[in-house]
Amino acid sequence: MAYRRIVNRTDRLYALVEELRAVAPRPLSARRLAERFEVSVRTVERDISALQQSGTPIWAEPGRTGGYCLDRERTLPPVNFTPTEAVAMAVALDRMAGTPFQAAAQTALRKLVAAMQSGDASAARELAARVHLLGDGATAASVPPLIADALSAGRVLRIRYRDAGGAVTMRDIEPLGYIGKTHDWYLVAWCRLREGVRAFRTDRIVSSVVTAEVPEPRELSADELDIPYGDLRQLSLT
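Given the sequence above, the corresponding structure tokens read:
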């Protein structure tokens, strides 16, 4: 099947993923892909690098018969998001700025658009260009990467924490969860210094180091999340 020449880079990235998916797990060489899309080998290499950096599971297989491979089990086939649904997701994910999930939200949006049908993706981009978000100057400070990855890392963190009075203490903590407010995020953890569950406001964590220690699993009970103000709701994916 011959492709028409794809000028728009975003459309080409989408087409590259689909080309690799079609033959997975067999590899395709950069030269073969360059011929298919009527671009240079260097352009293909730059495009593949951009896809890899966005989290697309593509790897290079060395050797004379090698090339680029795609892990089909970790990618989505074209999805049936409407342009309006995609823009709604973009608006929601934009609100992740200043949360532990900011970086993940950015890669999730790129994956979503890459998995859409080409025409729907183009329509979504045109619709998104007509949507403008007004900032109020009260954006929360970005959560440090080590804190954002605290739960998935599953290791003890050593932090320096500044309390409301300005005093700084060194603590070893076992991350258990997050609590999010409008402009503040808290890392909930078992604090070995205080021998109990504590909520650490992320912008008061002066520094953090991931240790090699994997703590024993610890359950977080509802009583330990008894917040004296506000309504606490558990996040749901349904």
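The two ends are 40 Å apart (CA to CA). Try to locate this feature in the token string yourself.
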